[in-house]
Structures are given as structure tokens and as C-alpha cells.
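Chapter summary example: a protein plus S-adenosylmethionine.
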Amino acid sequence: MQDVVAAAGSLYIVATPIGNLRDITLRALDILKTVDIVAAEDTRVTQGLLNAYGLQKKLVALHEHNERVAAERLVADLGEGKSVAYVSDAGTPGVSDPGVHLVRQARAAGIPVEVIPGPSAVAAALSVAGMEAGQWLFYGFLPSKPAARRKALEDLKTLPYALVFYEAPHRVAETLDDLCVVLGAEREIAIARELTKLFEQVHVCRLAEAGEWLAADVNRGRGEFVIIVQGAAPVQADAGKLRETLTALLAALPLKQAVALAVQLTGEKKNTVYELALELQKHGNVDDHPA
Ligand code: SAM
């Protein structure tokens, strides 16, 4: 396996550890070692990472307050053949972190953009939560103002996907309260804090118990949090209503059209409707129509 060397004029988006400094990939180290410029969300934070690996690099700042201007400068450097790596403070740039404008500006200028994937708190939390989260929605940070936060949660309330949030320690208690009030007490929640760090902790309970768990120990409110909440239970099919609608449609339309229309009207899955249509026809509930 050969070391990777940064190519002239290429931009690399590099994921870095979310706590444990050893969680860095070999490829990330190769790129950080060989690029001309390392652009960082906070140069002091990244200096710590580079020091840990004995790397001395030219660092420039690109954060949410200067992203567009700093991106313009970096794109000019890239255009002159310099290679650039972008890293945020922790985890994957562009995931609730700066980096998006830089990527867009670089692409627009025809500059090659490559990803050096690695840690991200959302993936780390999902992998360790042990929750049924086949389909999930990553929301990131909820609004900080209570009214806006509750409104955002109202909009998410009926979605049948696990909901993944990032949260800051000073807001986690009120967010847990709002989650319980808006989404209901019964859903399962996983609270994942300080992942990959000394006090890593994952607690799974019902939303009703989450606030109490947090308040029981002052240390539980400290650090960085990912919150995963079970999705809304799927709405139970109204079998009687579907049968009634389908019977009426099959009496007037060919099977395919009747099924398509019933799917539109009821929101049921096509397979469910199709099977019921065949059953209705088979048992003579409706006249056979040419398909
Ligand atoms: N770009 C990062 C990523 O890929 O995960 C996320 C950056 S965002 C500004 C920071 C938030 O990520 C924190 O407030 C917290 O919600 C979450 N986070 C980051 N590191 C974490 C960790 N070690 N344990 C739990 N959550 C973490």
C-alpha cells in the first residue's frame, strides 16, 4: 500500500477525529502532510492535531464568518497549482460545519475536489445507539429559540424516520423537554455524548424518562451530544376504507388504473393495493374488467 501524495491544484475535504486523536485515517495524514496549504475552521484547533502527528504546515482560516472571501482566495491559490486540504474543528466538513461554499466555488472554477472520509458524530452515534433506525433523517442543530424549536419539531412529528439531532450542552435539557412534549412520551431516544472521548456515554430510554436521566447527574449534561429519536409509528392502514374505494374503482376501471388511482387516493403501498385488487376480483366482489 503506497502513501498518497496530494496532487497540484486539487482541493481535499478531510475528515478529522471527533474526540480521540487516533481516529484519523492514513490517507488523511498523507494528504495533510503533502498539501501546500491546510485551511482550517479554527487554526488553533487544527494546530493541535498537526502537532500530535508532527506536521508543520501553513495554516489559513476558513470559518462561517469569512467562508466566501476565504474560499475565493483559496480557489485562486488552487488555480495557480497549489494543493489545499480543508478541515473543520472535528468530524466531517460540511456536516453542520463550514466547507460547503469552498466546495461549490472550487467546483465552479473547474478545480478537482476529493473527499478524504472519516469520522462524523452522526454516523458514530447511529452505529452505537442500537436503535432500529433503518431510515433516518439527519436534522443537525434545532433552532435555539424555544418557539422556533417547537415549530421545527411539529414539522417532524409525523415522519416515519428516526430523527438525528446535534445539540450543545447548554440547550440539551430544554431540547429533551420539547422532544417529549411535541413528539410524545413513548418514543425511544438515544442520547450519545462525548463519543470517542474519556466520558463516552450512550443512554437509551423513553422520551418520558430522558429529562430525569439527564438531571440525575450534573456530569450527564456536559460535553457534546447526538440525540436520536425513534420515528413516528406508521399510520395503520384503514383496511375497510381501502377495500371500499378499490371495489368502487374496480367496478368502473381496468385493474391497473383502479390500483393506480387507489394508491393515489389512499396513500397505501402499491403492492398492498394490487394484492387486494386481485383478491377482490378472484372472489367475485367485482366484475372482471379487461386489464
Ligand atoms: N462536522 C461534525 C461531524 O461531522 O460530526 C459536526 C460539527 S458540529 C459543529 C458539532 C456537533 O457535533 C456537536 O455540538 C455535537 O452535537 C456533535 N458532536 C461532535 N463531536 C461529538 C462527540 N464526540 N460526541 C457526541 N457528539 C458530537
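Key point: The chain has a mean pLDDT of 93.
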